[in-house]
Amino acid sequence: QGLKPLAPTEPPDLIIRKSKPAPALPAAGPYLNTNKVPDLQKIFQRPDGLPVYLKLGYSDKMLYRTTMALTIGGTIYCVVALIIASQPKKQ
């Protein structure tokens, strides 16, 4: 039947394709906005005694309060579920 070699004896020729260079991006496009980092740094580094997560105003306060309410509610729910699960079933 004949046996074939497992690996080719000569390595295959390398195929190198020349690709087109990437197109140059415009210096400023409509999708580029101004850099807001310096303005935000001024807001966050202001020594007003507020924690960083509350410095942007009303929306930050509402997100913080919502998160705390959900956390407390979830903790209470878990404790009640554990108490109910620990009680034996009445027959």
Automatic annotation (TrEMBL):
Transmembrane segments: 62-85
Record-level GO BP terms: mitochondrial electron transport, cytochrome c to oxygen; mitochondrial respirasome assembly; regulation of oxidative phosphorylation
Subcellular location(s) per record: Mitochondrion inner membrane
CDD domains in the cross-refs: Cyt_c_Oxidase_VIIa (cd00928)
A GO cellular-component term linked to this record: respiratory chain complex IV
Annotated signal sequence range: none
Pfam families: COX7a (PF02238)
Coiled-coil stretches: none
Keywords associated with the record: Membrane, Mitochondrion, Mitochondrion inner membrane, Transit peptide, Transmembrane, Transmembrane helix
Family the entry assigns: Belongs to the cytochrome c oxidase VIIa family.
The protein's name in its UniProt record: COX7R oxidase
